[in-house]
Write a structure and sequence with these properties.
The structure is a homodimer. The first copy, chain A, is mainly alpha-helical. The first copy, chain A, has a single domain, classed as Globin-like (Orthogonal Bundle). Helices cover 56% and strands 0% of the residues of chain A. Chain A is built from eight helices and no strands. Chain A is globular and about 50 Å long.
């Protein structure tokens, strides 16, 4: 994971990430609402043992889906209406790292702070800023939520032949919860005062 | 499904539901972002054949999770700080119907309009209004999103002994997508102008 320090704009755990307005107690409540347990944390780490190596393939498969739908692809377009390839490449490295972090990082203050940062980077507050680009200023929340359905099914990546159906189900459920907890946190800067 | 006309406040397809500000074209884009296909629609209807009869048990299992977490339970409390049992009972009937509708209803204008209505009923715009109650004015979006992880796994209800693992997986994936598409739509009234 330490190779991640060389990813431009990957500011996890650095002073460039501001403290999240969400407290750790609030995070625990969100985790509890999602039913995220110690067992899920363990299952996620087990899943990570195989997912970390496949993280780029996973992201490539998701990216192919984005590229195939103009309404999703256009949030990566430059002002001329073409894909900003440098931006896509920069985001991709952090997206791959996100798979690793989702499985392997402890859910502490640094993790919570970076969730807020990721959320902000999808909104006008910070989108484009990290990479000094000029793509549209937001990824609409409706797509962020709907796209969970694409990022959710990880069974094809879990080397099913080596695990029991029960283990696979535990890993799948843990991953689903972990993604939803993050989308919940990322939605914060999108939401009207008092409704988040 | 026609017994549903007797559920108080269940205004699906009636003049009491305003037209959604979301267009059918926008709905199709959200469905596409979630990867929702004709095959998913079919798998959902097949799932519905067994889920419709178990809808109340499903809701009871989810409700037990809500009741067990004070931070989720309190959105059903009356001003004295106790659960508003009449409100809970009224919402429950509609929640059970929601399981049926998720599997069986076509995704047309009436369906889209009612998604907006459900979203509004979780926000200050319409929460409490339908049932003339005095519970807190909002269910925070962070819990609505996180709780998808609880509503998501339907395998235990799918009579697994009667179906192939592949059929079960198709139904599970179709259900997951259908839920996320709805949460995406329900999030609309929560979100700041231009960010949804």
């Amino acid at each position: 994971m330490h190779s991640s320090v060389s990813i431009p704009g990957y500011d996890y755990g650095t002073a460039r990430v501001r403290r999240s307005p969400v407290t750790l107690d609030e995070l625990r409540q969100i985790e509890q609402a999602a039913g995220f347990s110690e067992e899920d944390q363990h299952a996620l780490q087990c899943a990570g043992e195989v997912l970390v190596e496949q993280a780029e393939q996973m992201v490539d498969s998701w990216r192919a889906r984005i590229a195939a739908q103009p309404e999703l692809a256009r949030w990566f377009f430059d002002p001329s209406g073409k894909p900003d390839e440098a931006y896509k490449a920069a985001v991709k490295k952090r997206f791959v790292q996100w798979v690793r972090d989702t499985c392997m990082r402890p859910r502490d203050q640094a993790w919570l702070d970076y969730q807020e940062e990721i959320g902000l980077r999808h909104t006008p507050a910070k989108k484009n800023q990290t990479d000094s680009v000029h793509t549209p200023p937001v990824v609409p929340l409706r797509y962020l939520i709907a796209f969970v359905a694409v990022v959710n099914p990880i069974r094809p990546f879990l080397c099913r032949e080596k695990r029991s159906a029960e283990e696979i189900e535990e890993m799948q459920n843990a991953w689903s919860k972990a993604v939803l907890i993050q989308i919940s946190l990322w939605s914060r800067p999108y939401v009207k005062e008092g409704l988040w």
